[in-house]
Amino acid sequence: MGIVVVQLDQRMGARQIYEALREQILAGVFGRDGHLPSSRSLAQDLGVSRTTVTLAFEQLHAEGFIRMRQGARAQIAPTLGNQPEPKVSPPKPTTASLSAYGQRIAVVVGWRDQAEQTLVADFRHGDLTPSDFPATAWKRAINQAMDQRSQRLAYDDPRGSRRLRMALQGYLWRARTIRCDLAQVLIVNGSQQGLDLCARLLLETGDSFVIEDPCYAMARQIFGGTGAVAHAIPVDAEGIRSDRLDKFAARLAYVTPSHQFPLGSVMSVSRRHSLLQWAGRHGAYIVEDDYDSEFRYDINPVPPLYGLSDGGDVIYLGTVSKTLSPALRLGFLVVPVELADVFAKAKLLMDRHSPALEQEALATLIESGAYERHIRRVRRFNRDRREALLSALRRHFGGGIAIEGAEAGLHVTVRFPGLAAAQEAALITRARQHGLGLYPLSPLYQAPPDAAGGVGLVMGYSGLDPRRIERGVEILAGVVGSF
């Protein structure tokens, strides 16, 4: 392990080098039984004589921090390699020291510490099963991309790899009947960055935006972080209540029409047209989050809003987080022609461009047909997982629960009318004590949902095999029965 960079004056003495190395050794930087850099290389890095470094090493050796022998690099004493000194946390900044944006997100954005815990079954939505990942095809595509990229080390187009944008242009036409120009396609670091770009470019403090209720909480937080005001519109079996839209002259609407998150409804054609007409009347843009449209089981694919609008009022957002892996952080936007240039400029300022190797590898998968073959394969696997979950829930709970959104996607919503809403936190805590990861529905509402509905859970199944699903529901039945 190399030394952690420390800014040191070129004229520093052996004492300063000794103190810097001692601090790093105590902090565990070099690990147990690790080695320091050679005296020659460290002297070159710091711009001092080798004799100065040697004096520092000898002091560390005399105090028992390192072991030295002729012809070998100095080694950390085994009793010191993993004993960091107690760290004093710096004082936290007061809210007043933050920008207006910082003050808003400090209050609005929730943060969950994802501490490692071994669970019998974790029903967190969005997780995928590692064995589903096309590891062989991905490794081959990454190696091919590395061979190609080794010929050119330079910054890329902020809009993303031309190959990938062309591949996505074809895929979107085949899979979602979306026609667009290449300049309209923008590669982003997952859907989160896509939403952030929309928020930065389309909303100001005091503006209004429309959002489904309940909804994807991170979207509400991203848009609200701009200082814009959220108007939550209820969702029913046909999607967002479009009859309530004209009460608001909003700049932007965020919807998940193909599979509403989290309730799972599909927006009806009449509601889609009403939403587009509202956007036209108010000069608003609609952000269409098509996060898991590849996974449909009991219903036919529904054309996206983007196609109905000819792309004029709709920004289409897609991701590979549900098809390949959320760890890849690859998503894409299809923006109206008049916004293509400014979105590319904002992306340039934000991070120059998304990681190039992963983009080229994904382009290879799409071009070869491997990506669509992979989707068909994991769709079968997730159909089986869905059936395992539904079967287990019906077997253990019968008619005592209500299941919503099972026709598509990678999660279902389950309501327990027999549990009082006030018991929700206790249910989540007790379930985790029994090795079960459960996630409540209530935080996804802007206002607390009707308590008469009992406790609601969002149960993802794409990260579990059928055996774990069955065992998890068995545990859930026992936990619910204890109330």
UniProtKB/TrEMBL annotation:
Superkingdom in the source lineage: Bacteria
GO molecular function, one term: pyridoxal phosphate binding
InterPro entries: Aminotransferase_I/II_large, HTH_trans_reg/aminotransferase, PyrdxlP-dep_Trfase, PyrdxlP-dep_Trfase_major, Tscrpt_reg_HTH_GntR, WH-like_DNA-bd_sf, WH_DNA-bd_sf
Gene3D superfamilies associated with the record: Type I PLP-dependent aspartate aminotransferase-like (Major domain), Winged helix-like DNA-binding domain superfamily/Winged helix DNA-binding domain
Residues of the HTH gntR-type domain: 11-79
Entry keyword DNA-binding: yes
Keywords: Aminotransferase, DNA-binding, Pyridoxal phosphate, Transcription, Transcription regulation, Transferase
Record bears the keyword Methyltransferase: no
SMART domains: HTH_GNTR
Family membership: In the C-terminal section; belongs to the class-I pyridoxal-phosphate-dependent aminotransferase family.
Protein name: Aminotransferase class I/II-fold pyridoxal phosphate-dependent enzyme
Origin species: Croceibacterium xixiisoli
